[in-house]
Write a structure and sequence with these properties.
The protein is mainly alpha-helical. It is about 65% helix and about 10% strand. It has a three-stranded antiparallel β-sheet.
Length: about 100
Protein backbone atom coordinates (compact mmCIF):
# COMPACT_ATOMS: atom_id res chain seq x y z
CA UNK A 1 0.00 0.00 0.00
CA UNK A 2 2.87 2.38 0.76
CA UNK A 3 4.25 1.77 -2.73
CA UNK A 4 0.89 2.71 -4.30
CA UNK A 5 0.73 5.85 -2.16
CA UNK A 6 4.26 6.82 -3.18
CA UNK A 7 3.51 6.25 -6.87
CA UNK A 8 0.24 8.20 -6.69
CA UNK A 9 1.94 11.10 -4.91
CA UNK A 10 4.80 11.06 -7.42
CA UNK A 11 2.33 10.97 -10.31
CA UNK A 12 0.35 13.86 -8.86
CA UNK A 13 3.50 15.95 -8.53
CA UNK A 14 4.50 15.27 -12.12
CA UNK A 15 1.12 16.08 -13.58
CA UNK A 16 0.47 19.58 -14.79
CA UNK A 17 -2.84 20.97 -13.54
CA UNK A 18 -3.22 22.90 -16.81
CA UNK A 19 -3.18 19.75 -18.96
CA UNK A 20 -6.64 18.55 -19.92
CA UNK A 21 -7.52 14.94 -20.66
CA UNK A 22 -10.40 13.66 -22.74
CA UNK A 23 -12.86 11.11 -21.46
CA UNK A 24 -11.10 8.32 -23.37
CA UNK A 25 -7.67 9.37 -22.10
CA UNK A 26 -8.82 9.37 -18.48
CA UNK A 27 -10.58 6.02 -18.92
CA UNK A 28 -7.42 4.47 -20.44
CA UNK A 29 -5.25 5.90 -17.66
CA UNK A 30 -7.17 3.93 -15.05
CA UNK A 31 -7.87 0.86 -17.24
CA UNK A 32 -11.63 1.39 -17.16
CA UNK A 33 -14.22 2.21 -19.80
CA UNK A 34 -15.54 5.68 -20.62
CA UNK A 35 -18.94 4.72 -19.18
CA UNK A 36 -17.30 3.96 -15.84
CA UNK A 37 -15.79 7.47 -15.77
CA UNK A 38 -19.08 9.16 -16.69
CA UNK A 39 -20.91 7.23 -13.95
CA UNK A 40 -18.34 8.41 -11.36
CA UNK A 41 -18.65 12.00 -12.57
CA UNK A 42 -22.45 11.87 -12.36
CA UNK A 43 -22.18 10.41 -8.85
CA UNK A 44 -19.88 13.28 -7.82
CA UNK A 45 -16.88 11.00 -7.25
CA UNK A 46 -14.78 12.55 -10.03
CA UNK A 47 -14.61 16.12 -11.22
CA UNK A 48 -14.87 16.97 -14.90
CA UNK A 49 -16.23 19.64 -17.17
CA UNK A 50 -18.44 19.11 -20.17
CA UNK A 51 -18.10 21.64 -22.96
CA UNK A 52 -19.52 21.27 -26.43
CA UNK A 53 -20.50 17.67 -25.74
CA UNK A 54 -16.92 16.74 -24.80
CA UNK A 55 -15.74 15.84 -21.31
CA UNK A 56 -12.46 17.39 -20.14
CA UNK A 57 -10.57 16.44 -16.99
CA UNK A 58 -7.64 17.90 -15.12
CA UNK A 59 -4.64 15.62 -15.29
CA UNK A 60 -4.62 15.44 -11.49
CA UNK A 61 -7.96 13.60 -11.72
CA UNK A 62 -5.94 10.61 -12.91
CA UNK A 63 -4.71 9.87 -9.38
CA UNK A 64 -8.21 9.83 -7.90
CA UNK A 65 -9.69 7.86 -10.81
CA UNK A 66 -6.96 5.22 -10.50
CA UNK A 67 -7.52 5.03 -6.76
CA UNK A 68 -11.29 4.57 -7.22
CA UNK A 69 -10.76 1.92 -9.89
CA UNK A 70 -8.27 0.05 -7.71
CA UNK A 71 -10.56 0.12 -4.66
CA UNK A 72 -13.55 -1.03 -6.68
CA UNK A 73 -11.77 -3.88 -8.46
CA UNK A 74 -9.52 -5.08 -5.64
CA UNK A 75 -12.14 -5.03 -2.91
CA UNK A 76 -15.28 -5.27 -5.05
CA UNK A 77 -16.26 -1.98 -3.41
CA UNK A 78 -19.41 -0.07 -4.17
CA UNK A 79 -18.52 3.21 -5.99
CA UNK A 80 -19.79 5.34 -3.08
CA UNK A 81 -17.75 3.32 -0.58
CA UNK A 82 -14.69 3.60 -2.83
CA UNK A 83 -15.28 7.37 -2.99
CA UNK A 84 -15.50 7.69 0.78
CA UNK A 85 -12.36 5.60 1.17
CA UNK A 86 -10.53 7.73 -1.42
CA UNK A 87 -11.63 10.87 0.45
CA UNK A 88 -10.19 9.48 3.69
CA UNK A 89 -6.92 8.44 2.01
CA UNK A 90 -6.57 11.92 0.52
CA UNK A 91 -7.35 13.60 3.85
CA UNK A 92 -4.79 11.48 5.70
CA UNK A 93 -2.17 12.35 3.06
CA UNK A 94 -2.94 16.07 3.48
CA UNK A 95 -2.73 15.80 7.26
CA UNK A 96 0.59 13.96 7.07
CA UNK A 97 1.95 16.63 4.75
CA UNK A 98 0.78 19.35 7.13
CA UNK A 99 2.37 17.51 10.08
CA UNK A 100 5.69 17.26 8.20
CA UNK A 101 5.54 21.00 7.51
CA UNK A 102 4.89 21.77 11.16
CA UNK A 103 7.68 19.47 12.33
CA UNK A 104 10.10 21.15 9.89
CA UNK A 105 9.61 24.51 11.60
Amino acid sequence: MATHEFLNNALAELLDEQVQLTLDELARSCAMGPGWVVERVQAGLLQGEQSGGQWRFSSTTVVRARRLARLETTFDADPQLAGMTADLIEEVAQLRQRLRQLQAR
